[in-house]
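Supplementary Note 3. Input sequence used for the single-chain structure prediction.
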Amino acid sequence: MTAQELKTAQENLTKKIYDFAEQKKLSNEELEPITDGVCNESEYLNSNPKIMWILKRPYDDVKEDGTPKGGDWSIVKDCFRVKDDVWKNKTFQPIIYSSYGFVNNLRYNGMDYIRDDKSMADILGQIAFINIDKMPGNNCSSEIIGQTYETWKEILWEQIDLYKPDVIIFGNTFDFFKEDMVGSETEPLKKYSENSIEYIHAYKKGSQLLLNAYSPRNKVPGSTKEAYVNLILDAIHENYK
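The predicted structure, written as discrete structure tokens, is reproduced below.
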């Protein structure tokens, strides 16, 4: 696939997301989808391995009663490209560190802080990033996201098929995909832990590496960003061939 072909396919899928949201009455005058995918088609296609992150849902604004509003923008096109600001997002920081560390063969302590080298955020051009929910929201309970996975399932799998990632990192989202990916009873190939905290469970689906991690933003008590990043790097290096 060429970069132009991927760009066209992504544009078509974006339109499908908008049409689906309208068809299902998920969108209205105050609420539209927040789309995702890849920021730089050429850089993504040339990356090795091609890495995709799957998180739960995007956020925008809220009304006075606390319900969400906003949308009608793209995380990867409107956010990832703003390199001077995207590094400030605490969700994206571990993603930047782990992606930059893998490409440059660095551990967490061998990298600069992003605030001191904002060019590290350029690495976001090499990854795919999708959310299970395509609508702005304020509730990430497992029950709600489970229902949302079923709603957006067809489009989510179209995205996975389109981007064909070699490695998928699930930010506390693997349980929603597990049965369809590897079967609900499948045990991980390896578990990665530090100080009795399990950070990563590694699975394989054919040649595709699947990493069940917790959310890069909502870390468990006692965990550290350093361990999160380093264990992701370990899991990719040890299991991706």
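The first strand starts at residue 34 and ends at 35. Residues 142-163 form the longest helix (22 residues).
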